[in-house]
Design goal:
Mean pLDDT of chain A: 96
Radius of gyration of chain B: 22 Å
CATH class of the largest domain in chain A: Alpha Beta
Oligomer: heterodimer
Structural class of chain A: alpha/beta
Strand content of chain A: 15-25%
Helix content of chain A: 25-40%
Largest sheet of chain B: 9 strands, mixed
Number of helices of chain B: 18
Shape of chain A: globular
Strand content of chain B: 15-25%
Low-confidence stretches of chain B: none
Number of helices of chain A: 17
Largest interface: A-B, 62 and 60 residues
CATH topology of the largest domain in chain A: Rossmann fold
Shape of chain B: globular
Number of strands of chain A: 22
Distance between the termini of chain B: 26 Å
Helix content of chain B: 25-40%
Structural class of chain B: alpha/beta
Low-confidence stretches of chain A: none
Distance between the termini of chain A: 61 Å
Bound molecules: iron/sulfur cluster, zinc ion
Amino acid sequence: MKTFENIVCSFCGSLCDDIVLEVEDNAISKVRGGCAISRRRFLGPIDREVPRIDGQEAGFDEALDIAVEILAKARHPLIYGLSSTSSEAQAAAVKLGETLGASVDSTSSVCHGPGTVAKQLVGLPTCTLGEVKNRADVVVFWGCNPVEAHPRHFSRYSVQAKGLHIEEGRRNRKVIVADVRRTATARTADIFLQVAPNEDFQVLTALRAVIGGAELEGEAFGGISRDEIRTTCNILQNAEYGGFFFGMGLTMTQGTHYNVRQALSLVRDLNEKTAFAVIPMRGHGNVAGAETVLAWQTGYPFGINFSRGYPRYNPGEFTVTDLLSRREVDAALIVASDPGATLPARAASFLSEIPTIVIDPNYSATAKLARVFLPSAPVGVAASGTGYRMDQVPLPLRKVIDSKYPSDHDILLAIDKGVTECSASKEVLSMIL
Amino acid sequence: MLCVKGGSIYDPLNGKAGAVGDIYVSDGKIVPPAPGARVIDATGLVVMPGGVDIHSHIAGPKVNVGRVICPEHSRSEPVARTSVTRSGVGSVIPSTFVTGYRYARMGYTYVTEAAAPPLEARHVHEELSDIPIVDKGALILMGNNHFVLSLIREGDFERLKDYAAFLIKASGGYGIKAVNPGGGANWRKRGNVGSLDDETREYRVTPREIIDALIEVNEALGLPHALHLHCNNLGQPTSGETALETMALAKGRRLHITHMQFSAYKPTKGRPFASSAKALAEYVNRNPNITMDVGQVVFGPAVTMTADAPLQYSLHTLTKERWVNKEIEMETQSGIVPLTYRKRTYVGAIQWIAGLELFLMIENPWQISLTTDHPNGGPFTAYPWVIRLLMDRSYREEVAETVNKRALGSSELPKLTREYTLEEIAIITRAGPARTLGLANKGHLGIGADADIAIYRPNSDFEVMFQAAAYVLKGGEVVVREGEVVSETFGKTYIPALPERRDVTPWLSPVFSKFYSVAFENYAVEKEKYMPCEVV
Ligand code: SF4
Ligand SMILES: [Zn+2]
């Protein structure tokens, strides 16, 4: 038996890095620390899947060849996903996208993309999670439910966590939750703002108005009474240090990037009075890395197209839902994500009409409708690399067991090589003919 | 073996100022003449060591957020892939691949990333690894670090040395950087420091004490480069006075003042500030222990990004532009604000003038390095333009005629007739910064030096001459021909040889886990993240 300490869990955007894994016979036998999600995921079987072509079991190399052929032939392929893999694999996906002249998009475009667009409009006063742990005496959760989706966020970083100036954890903090439903997170709050569905913008606007010194006319704003708005503002501006987390309840509801813009502006305004920081509550383990890697390699965070040989950026044009529902791509390579299960039906179903290739440790819903399925070594378990936490802190994802399959990174590089050789031979051929 | 034959060699360190000669190259190094070498005909061309940038923001969290929030810049300059190079974007903050290509085509072969936070150093190295061709090193932010300030207050300088050595090693860094020391610590409560003797609230130490201690630590560790300091009150009318006081506190010890132009202002009636470059230049002229780089402002779009977060907030309140602020637990903070420098505005003109005054009034070129504090004062791709301004007085006067009259009238610039020679340019863009950084094998073409060579086609327009080298050799390989990248190589990361110090783990590890959000064991950057590396 071998014990690995301080392992980073990449099963949600919290990237807790204190997991202890025991490994026996090339299998994880015990998980110490962690949460229900991480235990289930770390203990889950690996290498259970087989490569498939049209749903039928096939050899890995054979499946890889078909994948290369599909992509080399495609006129406008899409590379999508990338949120649950290493930054190295994300870089390899960009390289392949460039080789193919493809569109490259990450799951950002259907989760926190609007937050990124909002950031391009107003900027972002932010901090690392340790700063929240050390200093934040007021914490806001807006449209996110960490108790269920990021189970250890509270204890490690934001609510119960004890730090440099927050010695007693929860007792030193006021917690405000805004959501349309009384979620598990909401039940822990000192103040719960039950926002009327799709009216986050109104509530945020009212809060900004009061912080800016305006008198409110009207009794309620997006389902929140004037008194509640005032009380909330009092707490916000009297914070020593505030932390504001927002999730898809803000980014993906009516108003999308306008909502986030209002939230970011609120936090910016609060900095005239005190110190306040905002962190997008990223869901997938390395979706933050996808934005980061794409930006340093191409200049742009998501929604990129290489058809002209250089990167172009246009959310709404080169983003997954738009490309698929407008039927603009003729092949798709899905890496480490499951759009078949998460995208709107019209977009998802188009994936079964075009040749789709899936690289994933699991035989996902998308894999089931794919032409080619290439199982890969799960990152942070049987493959290593870097993961970026929701606050952009990079952490090492480590390999603790071996997989019989290559990593996403190696598969993507192999495809890139195959496509490059394929098109080189095509060029030679066309010269001869 | 290769021979660069018959060029006019500018190798100031070895006393060559245009003498025609041959340079032999083998195994990535400059070697003594030997028969049988392949010849690069440099007849009529100017041969210099590869350029060395002492201060530029090219990789890491804040550079990248700058890219994300400013797609409007990237869109203005797409860069297509070629058979040897990757695609990307140019403009104000180029993507990583393009950063390497653009430095290389100007003949630069070494770049210093000026500000790496240890907690995010892994990110810095991931980006640096994606910057082709050039060698690189990263300076590590320490001026507002919790443990640095606490140890100074406790007066435990031995432990401070242990810790500084640990931080450099854990971050894969090259040297020590301090930015508005003490000011950042107060910024956590949205304050700042106003003078060298202002106490920080939580640590009760002053900027003077922090700077003094970090100079001491830097020298005790025998680091190749001096403490790299971004002064307090930068950008303020009090900045010039503060910079003078700061340099004085070095008391003869080495000190590098970075982007001094942004610290070269003094109060004036009815205007935000005037240039105090003259007083600073005079000080530098009298004190050979001081080195500096300029941080020349370039007219047009820029993105300001610095660990001086309070400065960035005040810039944001002034311009109402997008504002990014980031506190990094226990260590540092940063701010980003896009900005356009306009020649017609008084402030824009004063900043441009102050930079040129420093260039023209600092007498010893070995003390001054050319930088724009990329992308703060403007992109590094403007270096050739700056060179033209320095070498061509009539061009400089032509441009000066177009800037804000009142600013120009109040300045020394019209009186400055100096023109830089090619030899002086070779000093401020390679030989000098290499010496200041302590890179013994860079910035010159003597036997044993790295075969990083830039070959330029002379042109009366010096901007044209320096923006696209005729040839660039990196480690002996031809990587640029006629301004085009013809081969994509990857350089090394430079790290210093550190003296043996006591292990910090026994005292640091227990407090670390209380105050950080990551495990101590996951803090240090894995060495393979910055391989290959070179120890100097
Ligand atoms: S909270 Fe998220 S990162 Fe932490 S252990 Fe659970 S699943 Fe893993
Ligand atoms: Zn700088």
